[in-house]
């Protein structure tokens, strides 16, 4: 496991000489693209931070940590729920998500298998004895690498939820002395390249107007309900009300609206004594074109001559509905006792603000 023992503190005086300060060449501060979070380097013996610009000896025992220091030995990396293991790695930059391509690997495990945490990930380069090159191959070749660890699944074949933590290192061929990039915790803002430029943008806005609520009637003042057929022995005629528009431009107040209908009884055109009740007319409200998300149509209903009217449609009061074009299917069913002929009525469509 990654957990360190108290015995390491006693070794601090022995290994301190392996750190050579080179403050004249400061390490850059950046979190490499692709890492799930910062991967700081700390002294494995006492958990203190390794200073930026430090050249580290090949055999010096350092560990990876999610924060700059871990003197209480209580800071951990937490893995995703699908993680089943841990692989510390040294690898060519850009291959951090491919365990099969790791240049060198070290032994790794959870510090708490239930919580899937890692305490002080191994970062002593000489301990990475497995992999395509192994520690000795990395030391001999030198070069630019990523140093860190991956939470893995599928017996170590795949990275769990792309959860890798790493920083960049540079290894000197032969001696194995190495330097690292201290993460800042956030990615730096990129500088403009040679073939790009930056420009400040100033956008001007305006307040929406507080317009009116209005109703635009159909082009024709008469709706024909015709082509009668016998349905269950009753004369059934159909037609359309005609397209009309509700225009709501109250873009500031957002009051919403209701649309209702009322219908008078039907009277035979050549015999006023023959009357069919208005309830024999069914009205099915419908949108013309794309439905408006701010408007709700009533279910198909029989008309009524009641003064309050029957709901046809309504809008919400969260935002202005704009222009909404509507129509209705009309179905008139005549009682069997009434003579054939033409019957007339009047529908009133009323728009009101909520």
From TrEMBL:
Signal peptide bounds: 1-26
Keywords annotated in UniProt: Signal
Domain of life of the organism encoding this protein: Bacteria
Keyword Signal: yes
UniProt protein name: WxL domain-containing protein
Organism: Herbiconiux moechotypicola
